[in-house]
Amino acid sequence: MKKLVSIPILFFITAMGFAQEKVQDSENTYKKRVLETAEVEFLTSLYTQDGDNAAVTGGIGSEKLIDATATFIVSVPLNDDDVLTVDAGVSAYTSASSSNIDPFDGNKPADPFQASSGASASDVWTNGVISYAHSADDRNNIWSAKLSASNEFDYFSLGLGGSYTKLFNEKNTELSVNANVYLDTWKPIYPIELRTSNLSRYGTITGNANYNPIFKKFGSKGRNSYSAGFTFSQILSKRLQGALMVDYVNQQGLLSMPFQRVYFSDVADSFIENFQLADAIELLPDNRTKLAVGGRMNYYINEIFVLRTYYRYYTDDWGITSQTASIELPIKITDKFTLYPSYRFYNQTAADYFAPYEQHVSSEKFYTSDH
Amino acid sequence: MIKKMILCSLALSFFSSCVAVKEYEKVKINDPDMALSEKNVHRLEATFQSYREAASGANGGKTGGGCGCN
């Protein structure tokens, strides 16, 4: 069982910007703008985690990670009906496990429980999304489209999507459908021992000196994700509303992580210093279908408290099922300050292709030790 | 799965039987904390969760793509 300690620290600043209020008086009618003013949101977070089951080192080793993120979201009303939103973020992290893609570039002896200090010890993820939403005059039909891109050293993603929302029953009922496509590309980075012909430069191989890993570079470097979603929401009373959500996702292409090692129980172990050399890298099917069904129910208790609840059931064709439940009780301390105490429960079963450190055998077709 | 679909159908029929709340009665429903989607500030937390958890989707957010972690 993986032990993880996470300390998300979230800050939330919302700034309201300028606005040009416009009254549409043709034919003496007034149409409320979808968004009255331009809005700017700045979000930042600091996340840390620790654990002893790093996937990069085959299910053992340090999972220490620190991630700092900053995001700007700017929403601008283009006219009464249309809103353009630009969302840009950057996330910088240092990771002990990814540093051990090459454990031999540090000053200390290579060890899965020690971070190395090479290039793979840190990375920067940048992300941008432009979205456009149009509302019909009666505000009962909303169309939106978005284009997104993100990049990190070994991964690039391009996404596009759209949604349609229909409100009826005096805006008490809302139906929404959405579809997204992500076209991603890996720049595979393999464990150092699998891309070096002269391992002796890193030290003497101990244990099984005839090191002979199962390794072939991935031919396909693309990963495409296709998703479709459906949301039904309903106002149930003056204080209560709920929603049901369904998301279907199909992924194709390189779904394995190229830098995650696997150690087989039927292969003799080889080491350099304290570091066990990979028997293979993670190998997973090139197709995966996911289905998530969720529900929300929110209740307005009084001017200070709101009760927010959420439940999700998830299943996929890799054998994973999962349940997520959360409860949140926003407390309005003042008009401008709200506290969000929350409790979240999550559990899942292991994928069919998962086994812990040294429990796979080399004859298996697919294998991973990603906890 | 069939049981879950029946439960969803029952929930839908329950929802649709409700009396419509008028616009001028929606002061409490329109409170920002009553929104039926994740607040933006939770997006970052959802990203961290995707590092560690297999499940995603059905929360009004991204359901695939964008990083190598899911």
Describe this structure in words.
The complex is a heterodimer of chains A (371) and B (70). With 371 residues, chain A is an all-beta fold. Chain A is 1% helix and 50% strand. Chain A has 1 helix and 21 strands. Chain A has one helix at 96-99, and strands at residues 9-16, 39-49, 65-77, 82-95, 122-135, 141-152, 155-168, 173-186, 205-207, 222-235, 240-253, 261-262, 270-272, 275-276, 280-281, 287-300, 306-316, 321-328, 331-334, 337-339, 342-348. In chain A, the strands form 4 sheets. Chain A has a 14-stranded antiparallel beta sheet with strand order 1-2-3-4-5-6-7-8-10-11-16-17-18-21. Chain A is elongated. The model of chain A is unreliable at 1-26 (pLDDT under 50). Chain B is mostly helical and 70 residues long. Helices cover 40% and strands 0% of the residues of chain B. Chain B contains 2 helices and no strands. Chain B has helices at residues 2-16, 40-52. The radius of gyration of chain B is 17 Å and the shape is flat. The two termini of chain B are 24 Å apart. The chains are: A mainly beta (371), B mainly alpha (70). Chains A and B meet through β2, β3, β6, β7 and β8 of A and α1 and α2 of B.
Helix content of chain B: 40-55%
Radius of gyration of chain B in whole Å, from Cα? 17 Å
Structural class of chain B: mainly alpha
Distance between the ends of chain A: 8 Å
Strand order of the largest sheet of chain A: 1-2-3-4-5-6-7-8-10-11-16-17-18-21
- The protein's oligomeric status is heterodimer
Give the beta-strand count of chain B.
0
Quickly count the helices of chain A. 1
Choose one word for the global shape of chain A. Answer: elongated
The termini of chain B sit apart by 24 Å
The low-confidence runs of chain B, each spanning 5 or more residues with pLDDT under 50, are none
The ordered H/E elements of chain A are: EEEEHEEEEEEEEEEEEEEEEE
What helical percentage do the residues of chain A reach?
under 10%
